[in-house]
Amino acid sequence: MSEPASGSSVPRSRSPETGSGVRLEVIRAGVRTTVQDLGRPGLAHLGVPRSGALDAGALRRANRLAGNPPGAAGLEITLGGLRARVTRATTLAVTGAPCPITVDRRPADPGLPLAVRAGAVIDIGRATAGLRAYLAVGGGLTVPPVLGSRSTDTLSGLGPDPVRDGDVLPVGPATALPPGVDVAPHPPPRGTLRLRVWPGPRDDWFTGDAWRTLLSAEYRVSTQTDRVGARLTGPVLTRAIDGELPSEGLVLGAIQVPADGQPLIFLADHPTTGGYPVIGVVDPSDVDLLAQARPGTTLHFTPAPP
Amino acid sequence: MRARRAGPSAILIELPGDDAVSAAYELLTGLRERGELTAAEIVPAARTVLLDGVPDPDRVFRLLPGDATPTPPGTEGNTQITITTRYDGEDLDDVARLWGTDRAGVIAIHTGTEFRVAFCGFAPGFAYLTGLGPHHHVPRRATPRTRVPAGTVALAGPYSGVYPTASPGGWQLIGRTRETLFDLDNDPPALLTPGTVVRFAEEP
């Protein structure tokens, strides 16, 4: 499937729900901004992808700083570039890719709770490293959930549309006070990424050389990287078994090797099943790092402890 | 039966065929319902069942019944669905030629087969239906269509399926139904879930 299914009966309401009456007014959406929470796990047997924030750890941190439960919905802002206004005094928090931030044109800090007045305008500038910044609003974004999640699934078209200039997003009532935090730096790593990888489930479909190559060679994140997966470029991984593999279930972080031998690592919007063999699986705790890797980033794989 | 690790919290169980997949899927979902297995996802596919979100995959190896192939499950007790279909698909004549019959013959075979949902995938609510005999398997189209409308009934390989939403697709199109295959207001949202028994009926 090369494009999101269209014509689905997914509700796409943009009107604020009843509730707290607080709204986040998006003045400028940036290159690619979506609403994300922790996704809709448990439905893969119906063909429904997990979806959710690509850097789930960063969304959790933003929620904690804004006084929200970990699974509240926020904005995933690719490369920064968002400007938005809140209609009532609340707490905001920005995590993930480091970006210059201002509130009402005054510099503000990422990784800290930001108490803002009613009508305050937050600007999240262009990311200086990494790919994806997360904005949490006290109370969380309360666009209508679809199958228990407010995440935009770019593969299957479930959940709200990507955020556009002028969108008005409802915010729920704040449930807790933000924590007292002095410093909460969490910059994404720069330079080469090291990802721990587990062999299998189909490493035996490859030559022994292919596994050694994966662990010794340098790969680069290609420009063909989106919420479905990160394509890599580097030495070709050669197959030992030709022919077709019947479709089978896929996990987050699966390293699938299509016919051209160039690996692709699946991220949150990955399809639930696939037919190319999976040589290894990136440890789930390293997938957040990969989600912040810009095209051109060099990757090394190291064996995960058995 | 063979199990392979897929990272720290998932295992992929290999099975000899779709009957064994259905049996293993029922066994594992039953274990989970009774609280004897923790798994966030149990995903049947063509020759495998994936367990994901498993806190202790090594313990699951011990739960599995060794080399013994589970008995193919019966279909009594499973949900039964009839899908009323207008057989006017663009590839109906091609399928008739591949099957050595005519349009009426294709309709008779398709409506005369008891299908079962082997697994879902490709898109939310897209079910892979097994039941056609080996001599009624057909290849995919050489060139996939860029848009197949929602409700299209189609064939590829050993499977029959119905497109839940409009999407690109390379299957052989034999008809269309007005049934809604994926409805967010239903629980579960998919009309066809693994194990469901499906029959097709010609629209009068």
From TrEMBL, chain B:
PANTHER family: 5-OXOPROLINASE SUBUNIT B
Keywords: ATP-binding, Hydrolase, Nucleotide-binding
A GO term, aspect molecular function: hydrolase activity
SUPFAM superfamilies: Cyclophilin-like (SSF50891)
InterPro entries: CT_C_D (IPR003833), Cyclophilin-like_dom_sf (IPR029000), PxpB (IPR010016)
Membrane-crossing segments per the record: none
Domain of life: Bacteria
Any Pfam family: CT_C_D
UniProt-listed SMART domains: AHS1
UniProt name for this protein: Allophanate hydrolase subunit 1
Domain annotation Carboxyltransferase: ranges: 1-192
